[in-house]
Amino acid sequence: MTYLLGIDIGTYESKGVLTDAQGHIIARAATPHQLAIPQPGWAEHDADAVWWHDFVLLAKELLRQSGVGPTDIASIGCSAIGPCVLPVDATGKPLRPAILYGIDTRAADEVNELTQALGEAWLIQKTGSALSSQAAGPKILWLQRHEPALWARTARVMTSTSYLVYKLTGRVVIDHYTATTYGPLYNLQQNRWEPRGLALVCEPNRLPELDWTTAIAGQVTPEAAQQTGLAVGTPVIVGTADAASEAVSAGVVAPGDTMLMYGSTLFFIEVCAKLPRGGLLWPAVSLQPNRYVLAAGMSTTGALTRWFRDELGGVERMQEERGGPNAYAALAEAASQIAPGAEGLLLLPYFSGERTPINDPLARGVIAGLTLSHSRAHIYRALLEGVAYGIRHNLEALAAAGEPPQRLVAIGGGVQNQLWLQIVSDVTGQAQVVRTTPGAAYGNSFLAGVGVGLFADIDAIQDWLGPTEQIIQPNPALKTHYDQYYQLYQTLYTSTRPVTHALAQLGVGRKEEETA
Fold first, then answer.
1. What are the CA-CA distances from residue 163 to residues 63, 214, 255, 366 (Å)?
2. What is the mean predicted confidence (pLDDT) over 315-331?
3. Cis bond leading into 184, ω under 30°?
4. Per the omega criterion (within 30 degrees of 0), is the bond before 83 cis?
């Protein structure tokens, strides 16, 4: 038998699957981990204690569960959150915790500086999009400015998937899709590192090599085999960012297919027939040559429901610990009893700034319309609706920059919340196909098979997927109602922006005083 191993490292959880060549899942495993937030606007992971630790744990667990011999694994695929910035020394040892993707907004000054130096028109023409908190280049520059002694010891800068592949094979490599998010360092049209951007940020030899996602990066080394239980010499593909693998796992491969990944953040990937226009969103080459996607991302979605459960859902958590219903399910049930619109309550979900389409790292959460008659259930419903308005905002931006999304495919942990899915369809007026595959880890397993020639290309994923499990249809009777709230949602952001920006600056300044 031939088996394929896929592992994905997420913001709060890592998952792994072992499949056969027909896509049947032989074993699966998951493990949680913590997100470090040293101060407002920062988000970090320890590369060894989180990324590599989880990979090793999951690899061993999948082998144990399945009883599959390590030499029967034909190929390994990895994905992880991205883009991240991890500086390592000449021996490959991390020098500090990794700076994470767009939820880390520390490099706002560097974003502005590089934008002024290069010009937004040049950025869009060469790299595909304006700089934002999602871009890795400004965070590399932030390291140089704020931690110069550490930067002097930095030999290479890796992203999360790069580090996993390095630990497995000894090669430092990044796929073209993930490299697209390393603005302003990647030339989207020529598929290479961009000299003008590099001149302002870092030397090219500090960055990983470029290659395609399904190319073989190398083989498992003896040291990695000893740590993981995998066989020496097992092929490892270059891998990619979690959202791209997740899209493949859901069959989002045809033009017009659009993934909504309900995770700690919400990520969108629309497959496009040609390279889409740049600007507010993130055009990218796909996982293989001559394919394109248009991506977008919200900063706090699932993380926001987690925050609500942890900070305001103490009763539900206590009941769950005593054998009662899941806390998230209990909160959703209470919110389902509240009328659409939460009786005049509106929430901006910008608790960690916001990525697309407003690209505002200083945006902050707002709850408007509170009265003494509102309960926690009202606020939770407003939270779910606020995220839905943000989704609609992004879908409209996708249609304007690329092609109108034809088929929405919902995946990720958030699809367990049926109320949330229904709200999103009602707010957007679009149906959602729901897929409940193991997600990016499953996509990685398939991509690993492409890498060793078991499948011709990524279109073959359709042979792995069964029939559609569920379709969420919008309720047309609610369209006018939610249209009114959506217009107010946009107005609320623009009207409160001066205040939330000032509060964000005051909050950062206060934190700096406390740590000085």
1. 22, 17, 31, 37
2. 96
3. yes
4. yes
Cα dist from 279 to 101, 126, 128, whole Å:
19, 11, 7
User: Which whole number is the average pLDDT over 98-119?
Assistant: 95
Residue 411, H or E segment: strand 407-411
Q: Is the pLDDT of residue 280 over 60?
A: yes
Q: Is 223 helix (H, G, I), strand (E, B) or coil?
A: helix
- 99 forms beta bridges with 44, 85
Is the CA virtual torsion 383, 388, 391, 397 positive or negative?
A: negative
Q: How many CB atoms lie within 10 A of CB 354?
A: 29
Structure tokens at 312: 């305001």
Q: 291 phi and psi, to 5 degrees?
A: -130, 150
| Backbone phi, psi, residue 112, to 5° | -65, -40
Instruction: Answer yes or no: is pLDDT of 429 > 70.
Output: yes
First-last CA distance in the chain: 59
On whether the CB atoms of residues 83 and 249 are closer than 8 A, the answer is no
pLDDT of residue 510: 56
pLDDT tens by residue, 176-199: 999 999 999 999 989 999 999 999
Which of 506, 514, 107, 458 lies closest to 252 in space, CA to CA?
A: 458
- Residues in contact with 209: Cβ distance below 8 Å, sequence separation at least 6, in sequence order: 171, 172, 173, 174
DSSP letters of 257-305? EEEEEESSSEEEEEEESSPPP-BSSEEEE-SSTT-EEEEEEESSSHHHH
Q: What does the alpha-carbon distance between residue 390 and residue 382 come to, in Å, rounded to a whole number?
A: 12
Note the pLDDT tens digit of each residue in 40-52: 889 999 999 999 9
Mean pLDDT of 57-61: 98
**Short-list 55, 79, 386, CA closest to 214:** 79
Contact between residue 77 and residue 6 where contact means Cβ atoms under 8 Å apart: yes
Is there a contact between 41 and 508 (Cβ–Cβ < 8 Å)?
yes
Q: Are 320 and 330 in contact (CB under 8 A)?
A: yes
Identify whether the C-beta of residue 51 lies closer than 8 Å to the C-beta of residue 9.
yes
Phi, psi at 222, each rounded to 5°? -55, -40
Residue type, 67: G
Say which residues have a Cβ less than 8 Å from residue 116's Cβ, sequence separation at least 6. Answer: none
Q: Are 283 and 271 in contact (CB under 8 A)?
A: no
Phi, psi of 230 (to 5 degrees): -80, 165
**CA-CA distances (angstroms) from residue 462 to 1, 125, 251, 252?**
21, 34, 6, 9
- The answer on pLDDT for 516 being more than 50 is no
